[in-house]
Specification:
Layout: H1 5-15, H2 29-32, E1 50-54, E2 64-65, E3 68-69, H3 80-90, E4 93-97, H4 107-119, E5 124-128, H5 138-158, E6 162-165, H6 170-175, H7 179-197, E7 200-204, H8 211-221, E8 226-231, H9 240-248, E9 251-256, E10 259-261, E11 267-269, H10 272-281, E12 287-290, H11 297-313
Parallel strand pairs: 1-4, 1-12, 4-5, 5-6, 6-7, 7-8, 8-9, 9-12
Antiparallel strand pairs: 2-3, 10-11
Helix pairs in contact: 5-7, 7-8, 8-9, 9-10
């Protein structure tokens, strides 16, 4: 007899005294499938953060940059395959920044990357592009949208669940009354395409955008597949941690930088413990991706990841 829900309970009733008074009509779907079926994250969960590394951290080591060969000046050379190998050695996920793919990268190439990452035990946490949706030229804007949607397709092929977008710049938004609307409408188009493929868009607090501008864009798009790509080093503000916290509850990815710039121009260390506290308080549960911008990355990244594991993961 094939086992289905009805005869399962019939068999269970016959064999277990504790079920003798329970009929199938008295057991709700929620009783059968409890907490695990929730479509939203469990708000009471306080797990360890997962760590990743952005390819941008090794930007001077890659053979390609934005479609062109770049000199590595004697540094150890990387491509995306060897970057994944490096992430495997560091036991972290990989963010595959679009700038460093070869110009002829196609679907077959991306599938080879996906296969290599899987066999190496490296999750591809996302990819990232350097777009601008506040450009005033309509022809250029259409090109930006087309490129963004193409990279959503690439993210899907790679098996990445997230892609980092820029919205535009604070200067363009404040100098052009239509720029903010342009960014929101452009992101709406992209978010619709991303939703069809199950890809999250993270709008980065880039281009000196304020926290209020970032949240106005995210709320204006109003898509369950779009949130903030929260960069810990990008708010140039007297109150950067308040700005980070303001955006954290809408974040779908976090990029951790070692330094943040103050309004005076001085660079200061990002307080790792303080970042953990605000992410915990706002119930962020995704990846924290190291985007290392300081000197000697190959030597220093392992040490930074060790400290991040201690602070963000408690190990």
């Amino acid at each position: 007899m094939p086992l289905n829900r009805r005869n399962f309970f019939q068999l269970s009733t016959a064999s277990a005294v504790s079920l003798t008074s329970i009929s199938t009509s008295q057991v709700s779907e929620r009783t059968l499938l409890p907490e695990q079926t929730r479509s939203e994250p469990n708000q009471k969960f306080a797990g360890q953060f997962r760590l990743g590394l952005a390819a941008y951290s090794l930007r001077k080591h890659f053979k390609f940059f934005k479609g062109r060969h770049q000199p590595t000046n004697g540094l150890q050379e990387f491509d995306m395959f060897s970057f994944i190998d490096y992430c495997a050695a560091q036991q972290c996920a990989a963010e595959l920044t679009s700038y460093f793919f070869p110009p002829n990268a196609d679907r077959d190439y991306f599938l080879k990357i996906k296969r290599h990452a899987f066999l190496s035990g490296v999750p591809i946490v996302g990819t990232a592009i350097g777009n601008n949706f506040t450009v005033p030229n309509k022809t250029q804007l259409e090109k930006e949208i087309t490129l963004a949607n193409l990279w959503i397709d690439h993210a899907s092929t790679l098996g990445a669940n997230h892609i980092r977008f820029f919205a535009g710049t604070k200067k363009q938004i404040e100098s052009n009354p239509n720029a903010l609307t342009s960014a929101i409408n452009s992101l709406k188009q992209c978010a619709k395409h991303a939703a069809n493929l199950g890809i999250f868009i993270g709008v980065e607090n880039h281009g000196q955008l304020t926290a209020d501008q970032v949240m106005k864009i995210v709320k204006g798009v109003d898509s369950p597949w779009l949130g903030v790509n929260l960069d810990t080093g990008n708010f140039i503000s007297p109150t950067p941690y308040q700005d980070l916290k303001k955006c954290a509850s809408s974040s779908v990815n976090v990029q951790y930088k070692m330094k943040m710039k103050q309004p005076s121009g001085e660079k200061v260390d990002v307080n790792m413990e303080r970042v953990k506290k605000l992410l915990t308080e706002t119930q962020y549960k995704g990846h924290i991706v190291l985007e290392y911008e300081e000197e000697n990355p190959l030597e220093n990244i392992p040490q930074v990841l060790t400290r991040m594991r201690s602070v963000f993961r408690g190990i």
